[in-house]
Amino acid sequence: MEIIFYHPTFNAAWWVNALEKALPHARVREWKVGDNNPADYALVWQPPVEMLAGRRLKAVFALGAGVDAILSKLNAHPEMLDASIPLFRLEDTGMGLQMQEYAVSQVLHWFRRFDDYQALKNQALWKPLPEYTREEFSVGIMGAGVLGAKVAESLQAWGFPLRCWSRSRKSWPGVESYVGREELRAFLNQTRVLINLLPNTAQTVGIINSELLDQLPDGAYVLNLARGVHVQEADLLAALDSGKLKGAMLDVFSQEPLPQESPLWRHPRVAMTPHIAAVTRPAEAIDYISRTITQLEKGEPVTGQVARARGY
Fold first, then answer.
1. Dihedral sign, Cα of residue 264, residue 155, residue 280, residue 50
2. What does the record give as the active site (predicted)?
């Protein structure tokens, strides 16, 4: 079994060694320009077109949970990968726990009004504030995939009312499920904290705009953990300035690194991190990939395959 690996920043030698230990019968090599030798599987992130074009691969693994970048490239260069070759994404590989940590910590930060207390501290004001109740602090999750399910699971322990909005109906215990555009307004109307975990598709680009934000209760919060292109930044800032939104926590941006001139840097009710909410954990990624390849070789059912036409 031949496996080729390409990632512009990962330590290729470590990955090659780890994969060969996990798959003793495989020969793994770092792909370099000019390498046209046969391969059965490819592990990639931002691959050049020539790496995959014309290859008769059994499968391709994208080294991340998001596949929008590689799908965009495949759309622009259909010769890059035959439509019959399955594409897989990393389903969890440690990212679920990281998303849980991030989401729970931020929801509790707002629920306990730590943002307000930080503002009071900056003014040297000693002022206890009224508490929020859990009943009024409904959390709505847009996107009900693997990571959305993990976040919902972690928030259940804290007693917040939970709801999710997705393409298909979910039957998660303790979570209200809303489906499609026709149920979006009902989902938003009672959502105090909006968590975005949607996939990046043509249908979801710019979805967090003034029309959507206006349907949230006054004083709502937005937590974006998916993609920066989901958010119309000017609309988000306008909602913050008007008081429609009380705060926003952003991990992803339409342009990264975020330009110094962006007003998001200076807005007092915007907090941010540099796209670190959930990163690939190499050891757990190796475990998932090696297990999936073994299942594919045995003809067993697998999970994590991308529906290329759907975009995730």
1. negative
2. 227, 275
275 catalytic per annotation: yes
Superfamily holding 2-93+280-298? NAD(P)-binding Rossmann-like Domain (3.40.50.720)
**How many CA atoms are closer than 13 Å to the CA of 89, on its beta-carbon side?**
20
Whether 169 sits among the annotated catalytic residues: the reply is no
Taking only the tens place, the pLDDT of each residue in 71-86 is 999 999 999 999 999 9
CATH 3.40.50.720 correct for 95-272: yes
- What whole-number distance in Å separates Cα of residue 21 and Cα of residue 288? 14
Q: Catalytic residue, from 227, 230, 267, 291: name it.
A: 227
Residue extents of the structural domains in the chain: 2-93+280-298, 95-272
Give the side-chain half-sphere CA count within 13 A for 74: 22
- Which of these is catalytic: 27, 29, 269, 275? 275
The tens digit of pLDDT for each residue in 232-254 reads 999 999 999 999 999 999 999 99
Q: Is pLDDT of 92 > 90?
A: no
